Description:
The protein is an alpha+beta fold and 694 residues long.
Amino acid sequence: MDRPPVIEVEDVTKVYDLGEQKVEALRGVSLTVFEGEIVSLMGPSGSGKSTLMNLLGFLDRPTSGRYRLNGTDVGELSSDEMAWVRNHDIGFVFQNYNLLARTTSLENAELPALYNGTSSSAGRRKAREMLALVGLSEREAHRPTQLSGGQQQRVAIARALLNDPRLILADEPTGNLDTRTGAEIIELFKTLNREKGITIVFVTHDPEVASHGQRIVHFKDGLVEREEAGGGAGPAVSVSSSEDGAGASGEGAPAGGVDDGSGNGVSNGNGHGGGDENGGGGPRRRGLGAGVRANVRIALRAIRVNKLRSALTMLGVIIGVGAVIAMVAIGEGAKARVAKQMERLGSNRVSVYAGTVTRGGRRVRGARITTLTEADARAILAEVPGVVRVAPHVRGSAQVVYGNKNWHPPFTGTTPDYLQIMNWGVDSGSSFTDDDMLLNRKVAMIGKTVAKELFGDDYPIGQTIRVKHIPFEVVGVLKERGTSSWAGDLDDIVIVPLQTAQRKLLGIRYVRGIEVSAESQQATSDVQDGIAALLRVRHKITGTKLDDFRVRNRTDILEAANEAASTLGYLLAGIAGVALIVGGIGIMNIMLVSVTERTREIGVRLAIGARRRDIRRQFLTEAMVLSLLGGAVGILAGAAASLGLSYMGGWQIVISPGAILLAFAFAAAIGVFFGFQPANRAAGLNPIEALRYE
């Protein structure tokens, strides 16, 4: 025969592993189908003909043997390459039509165009042409339930023809049709073969349908039993099973290549599919933007079909996002109220620092001043009314070493009263004592960060660290304080006795500051004035001379209150976040149900050329659309709830744009996170098993 082979099957077997039992569906089949032929595969149920059809259409893989399509060894193809071939070179026509129930005839016929480089408009135009070709121009807007069986099969044929395949595989195409309609469908196939040169392979158990093939290949018990000429004129071609020793001729087959997803098409021996009209590779996949738009349309259609279920699914996200908006607004409002209150109340802690003065509202830093001393601190405690505790201190930074680990934290030299003034406690061990101060002992307390960096999980109390090469015994680990916007990590610190720091670490006699605790918040202002007056006398500052010190009320309490308000806001938002997570679980649950309900749809999409990533993107998009729609409604609901609470309870609220963006982003993240498992499950379905799903 002078025509090139399209299908070459050599000694193919297919064994299904059913656990304890193995079923041999094909037991060594060889077959060659040439370009332009109509071949009928005939046999009783269970004979293996449909299994062979699935292998020919790349819906399944053989257990052993070789299958070449247009000269290309199918065993060497990846799943994406096989999807490309299904989309471009093979048209499927199924016994049960396998149309998507929720879509129109036009949308069903257009389906293959979603998974190649065809634009939306071009795909829609081509789908109309194919429907006109099969006589259904007036039925474009009808859904499958509005069509007769013959019309549904014609839609399936139009879908199979959309990408101009050179091979049509028809599995019992007239099995569900009456005799007259079946004859019309067979005549349509013969017309396509005659006018377009399409190679057609029928699977049937009906001798009347099989007689329209140029060759009839009879199957029995997974073997080719015999071959005979059909009613159409055509050359006899050798077919055999491996058990009788004959093989199919594969000589003269042209070399072919399969697209790898980047544009190289499968050669079919007649110039089709290998390149586009511009001489490049095969059609490229549709761009990401077009694919996203198509997936969004599919998602919105699914939501419209199941309105109540979709609304209930989104309810969790709506509640979660609305709660986030409302709770953050309440938390920010509480923070603003606390800030105002604390600004009015102030703190009972006063700080004295050397070297900075303020004049005319401007902070002026002079030369390094060393006039503030430990004696000044003792004088403040003894002479200023309302002072209950003082703690002079110096500060610096140094390399701290323990074993083979080192860290570079700041250190503070001070007195035992420092921790009480700063409202800071010891987590483990103890503080140093007045005796340690008196005897100049080299002892140290360390913050949590230093303990973690130097000791990890080891117990630090009693260990020796070296600060500027000077050994210090660790006597205590401070309680965790966290971070501050003005001071950074408050736990990254080493505290040692004042005089030890002055003499051993810094080589100075003055102090850089004095922390003072007043007996009450009301006494703070008097204490501040008293300290300033005392130090001017002690430092002999008279007249208009600038002070060589500064005295300020600290805002630590205000900051702590603000942090507490923020923590409250985060806690409330966290509670709302739980609702979002619950909503996400609802989305995952309903998407898993959707995957199960639409298993046949997924099988159809895979059969017409969808890659696994296309299925994954589709279901991820549906999950995100559900989540984002819920998020948008939740933002409106949260804003309305916040305003309602403010109106009814007289609460101050602050609706933050950042909180809105965060809630919306979190809703999108919920969609991706909880939609990934259902999407992966959908993408992992086996095409043939999905098509058989009931």
